[in-house]
Amino acid sequence: MSTLLLLNGPNLGTLGRRQPEIYGTTTLDEIAGQVAAEVADRGWTVESVQLDGEGELVRAVQDRYDTVGAIVNPGALMIHGWSLRDALAAYPRPWIEVHLSNVWARESFRHESVLSALAAGVIVGLGAPGYRLAARALLDLVPVPDSPAGAR
């Protein structure tokens, strides 16, 4: 069975309670369940990891090179997470950056991500459904084992 990494950064462990007017009321456990349901038909499981420290996130990425891909919400580390960027640059599978809120509709310091250029794609501003969209994208990006070349 293959595993999809669902990686969430600082402060995202309080989703559902933290500023619901910005981040919604869906919890991280609920998001993980929704992503798991989205990828179940492919036979994938989801490993949900939420850590508040950048070094811990780096280790989480490095320890999971064997996953099929990743959905990454770096939280505020999108702005200055250079060691996380280096870890994701070495991650050997496709990954999608996700943000619950529309970062470009918020404070100007949130308008640039040091990670986005490395991602296979970026989804912002769609709330919790953005994670499911990222999962669908990864289903398209990751080839089905034992299928003809190029088949998804």
UniProtKB/TrEMBL annotation:
Family matches, as CDD domains: DHQase_II
HAMAP family: AroQ
Annotated positions for site Transition state stabilizer: 18
GO term, biological process aspect, one: amino acid biosynthetic process
Reactions listed under catalytic activity: 3-dehydroquinate = 3-dehydroshikimate + H2O
Keywords, comma-separated and alphabetical: Amino-acid biosynthesis, Aromatic amino acid biosynthesis, Lyase
Molecular function via GO: 3-dehydroquinate dehydratase activity
Pathway assignment: Metabolic intermediate biosynthesis; chorismate biosynthesis; chorismate from D-erythrose 4-phosphate and phosphoenolpyruvate: step 3/7
TM regions (residue ranges): none
Alphabetized InterPro entries for the sequence: DHquinase_II, DHquinase_II_CS, DHquinase_II_sf
Residues that coordinate or bind substrate: 73, 86, 100-101, 110
Name of the protein this chain belongs to: 3-dehydroquinate dehydratase
NCBIfam families: PRK05395.1-4
Quaternary structure (record): Homododecamer.
